[in-house]
Write a structure and sequence with these properties.
Sufe protein. Chain: A, two-stranded antiparallel ribbon, 2 domains, three-stranded antiparallel sheet, alpha+beta
Length: 129
C-alpha cells in the first residue's frame, strides 16, 4: 500500500496549499466592511447660475457647482470681455476654487473684470444657500 500513502500525502499537500493560498489571500486582501455614520448627511451636488453682471467691458455670468459642501466647478459660460480681458477668466476660476469664494487678490490690468467676476460669484454662492 505504499501507493496509497503517496496519494494521501499528495491530497494533504494539495489541501494545505489551497488553504495556505486562502490564508495568504486573507492577509493580502483583508475583508472590508462598510458602515455609515448616522447624523451626518452628505450634501448633494448643487449647480446654480448667477445673474448676468454687466460691467465696462462686457458681462459675467457664472455657473457654479458645489459638491460635498465645497465649490468644485465654475463655468464662465457665455461671459464676455473685450480686448483680451477674457484671458483672466481661467485664473479667476482657479483662484476662486482655491479660496472657496471671492477672498482672493486682484489681477493687474483686469480690475473691472475681477470685480464683475467676484460680484457674479457672490451672487451664485448666495443662490447655493
Amino acid at each position: 500500500m505504499p501507493s496509497s500513502n503517496w496519494k494521501l500525502g499528495a491530497a494533504v499537500l494539495g489541501i494545505a496549499s489551497v488553504a495556505g493560498g486562502f490564508g495568504v489571500n486573507a492577509i493580502l486582501n483583508p475583508a472590508t466592511t462598510s458602515s455609515s455614520v448616522s447624523g451626518s448627511a452628505v450634501e448633494p451636488d448643487k449647480t446654480v447660475t448667477s445673474d448676468q453682471i454687466p460691467y465696462e467691458f462686457g458681462y459675467v455670468e457664472l455657473t457654479v457647482t458645489k459638491s460635498a459642501g465645497k465649490l468644485s466647478a465654475i463655468d464662465i459660460g457665455g461671459s464676455t470681455a473685450t480686448d483680451g480681458r477674457d484671458q483672466a477668466y481661467p485664473i479667476l476660476v482657479e483662484e476662486a476654487i482655491k479660496a472657496q469664494g471671492t477672498d482672493f487678490g486682484n489681477l493687474g490690468g483686469a480690475t473691472y473684470t475681477v470685480d464683475a467676476f467676484k460680484a457674479a460669484l457672490d451672487n451664485a454662492i448666495a443662490k447655493l444657500g
